[in-house]
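As agreed, record copied across for absentees:
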Amino acid sequence: MSSRADFPIAFRKPGERGRQVPPKPGSERNPIRLGSPANTGSLSLVFSGGWSAIGNAGPGPPGHNGSPPFGFPPGKGYMSVLELTRTLIDIESITGNEQTIGNYLYEYLGRLAERTGGRVEQMEVEPKRHNVFAQWGGRLEVTLSTHMDTVPPFFASREDETRIWGRGACDTKGIIASMIEAAERLLAAGERDFGLLFVVGEERNSTGAYHAARNPRGSRYLINGEPTCNRLALGSKGSLRYEVAASGRLAHSAYPELGDSAIHKLVDALADIRRIPLPVDPVLGASTLNIGTISGGVAPNVVADAASAEILIRLVGDASAIKQGVARAVEGRAQLLEILEIPALRLGSLDGMETTVVAFTTDVPAFGGQWGEPFLIGPGDIHVAHTLEEHVLKSDLVAAVEIYQNMVRRLCKRASK
């Protein structure tokens, strides 16, 4: 364990900061002020009672009122899966702004680790952005992992009898809460040799997962959390993303022979791209193509000198034939720039679990197997993720807690054979 002098942060006894504020009469949820400045260094702490390293408390971002910062319920130091889901949703963490939620989870897991002999680590990915990793036991057999960031726009939590609503409810604040409660119950039952890993940047470029892959901890199995309606995903489609840019020559539209339309070139190339045969896989289904954006030209009465489009193809297997087809379609018409390729994946399975196949991509390829054989499962429905109606069923969250516990136990048992 490192000494206090190793950390550019203040040390306080656990419990000094957090406190629960009761709701105001007649309000559904008391207003709260967001977080504190991040600890930007890589920290590794072993908690066995006494002091813990916790970031300095500070004011929330501009625009928030004087309500207390996020805290912990008095007397028990942790929340139920439903309470924690709402608390995490109310911490805005759009990609690139994961500092506050990272600090919150670091402190929350630090309190849990302090009571249970674990250790918590901050992995600096970029300044003010860090992954959070916690481990219990001498061996790391299984890691429960998901991402902390969300897509924009932020909107706060609310709930009704059956659902919790808000940005990140299913993608993936509810999953974080389910994993943490599963860890609490496993620890209470005496289970060890597992960990929790929460990463930044999945919604943009998986930068947190790539960083974790460069800094593995010896995990044998990785349970990655994404909204799959609590069904174990047998595979996920990959992604192939292109930018297509055409150039031409400006002219008056009354005399098009004097110009060279970039838009016409682009439209012809895109039409041929749409005719490319796309493969079908017996497990993952059909590959799909989407022309997501088109831009170009300056006015309807001007022959366009520039035009571009962005294309995303969902892969179900080898991409070689698709790449060749796209290259032929644009040849002589436009420039082709490959932005991103993520391969399709086959994922781990466990007997007796309901299964599915998903079309979206995840952090799993970025981990590159460095955190163990991957499994993919989580509460919530991907069809409402990224929408203004994002929500998660309370019953799904409760069920996920049991699912994650059972998976950790089964995989730890498998690893010990």
